[in-house]
Amino acid sequence: MIVFPAIDIKDGKCVRLTQGRFDQQTVFSDIPGEMAIKWQKEGAEYLHLVDLDGALTGVRKNIETIREVLYLAHVPVQFGGGIRDIASIEAMLEFGVKRVVLGSAAVSNPALVKEACKKYGGQVVVGIDARANEAAVEGWSKSGGVKADELAKQMADAGVERIIFTDIERDGKLSGVNAEDAARIARASGLKVIASGGVSSRADIERLKKYEADGIEGVIIGKAIYTGVLSLADAIKAARGE
């Protein structure tokens, strides 16, 4: 199981939000590239990079900061935030990201997902962010009008290989990961799932690892490693079963 340290960018800074709320943010670094270096030194095998401004508006406002992180990253990077057309996917892959994460587009433009998967295969990942199994879009600010598990099945039909499942109610609250729902969606859709939201301890990683056979292949960690309640090194060890 892979641990993905999250680097969320807003206004050029590395921040963490609580439940996706832009009015509840904490700035952890004015230079996100420094966080990329830090997590790599601590053993990161993959980075999860998000343009929060792009997720909210559909317009990537942090492109120079993103370029800097990619330049400093010597491990693969998956990127999401404001990717809503083929041109944007192509641009980010050309910048050097390994995977592109589609969020709102998965709900509003399923034809795009199908086209992207046909063209780029496993380099396309879909982010399904949900409150009580209801998918949310546009930076988690609106309901997508579809159940998370149903959306996952639709994405499987469109050719998607993996999704990132985030429980919004737990995100940034250190309240424990929703391993059960992540595994349920993996089983229902047959997709590989990267879980996100609420990770607070080694025990959370160990709980997720028990569902590897169901399709859980990774976990995104943000606030826990930024605040120090869980070290990235310990999280990686747990993910490896050490």
Q: Could you walk me through the main structural features you see in this protein, from its secondary elements to its overall organization?
A:
This protein is of the alpha/beta class and 242 residues long. It has one domain (2-239): TIM Barrel (Alpha-Beta Barrel). The chain has helices spanning 32-41, 52-57, 63-72, 86-95, 104-108, 110-120, 148-157, 179-189, 202-209, 223-227, 232-239; strands spanning 2-10, 13-18, 21-29, 47-51, 77-80, 99-102, 124-131, 134-137, 142-147, 162-167, 192-196, 216-221. It has an 8-stranded parallel β-barrel with strand order 1-4-5-6-7-10-11-12, surrounded by 8 helices. The chain is globular, with a radius of gyration of 16 Å.
Short description:
By secondary structure, the protein is an alpha/beta fold. It has a single domain (2-239), classed as TIM Barrel (Alpha-Beta Barrel).
Shape: globular
| Alpha-beta classification | alpha/beta
Beta content comes to 25-35%
Helix content: 25-40%
Extended strand count: 12
**Helix-strand pattern:** EEEHEHHEHEHHEEEHEHEHEHH
CATH topology name: TIM Barrel
Sheet with most strands: 8 strands, parallel, barrel
CATH superfamily: Aldolase class I
- Termini Cα gap: 12 Å
Quaternary arrangement of the chains shown?
Answer: single chain
CA radius of gyration: 16 Å
* Average predicted local confidence, pLDDT: 91
Write down the domain tally: 1
CATH architecture: Alpha-Beta Barrel
Q: What topology does this entry show?
A:
Layout: E1 2-10, E2 13-18, E3 21-29, H1 32-41, E4 47-51, H2 52-57, H3 63-72, E5 77-80, H4 86-95, E6 99-102, H5 104-108, H6 110-120, E7 124-131, E8 134-137, E9 142-147, H7 148-157, E10 162-167, H8 179-189, E11 192-196, H9 202-209, E12 216-221, H10 223-227, H11 232-239
Parallel strand pairs: 1-4, 1-12, 4-5, 5-6, 6-7, 7-10, 10-11, 11-12
Antiparallel strand pairs: 1-2, 2-3, 7-8, 8-9
Helix pairs in contact: 1-3, 7-8, 9-11
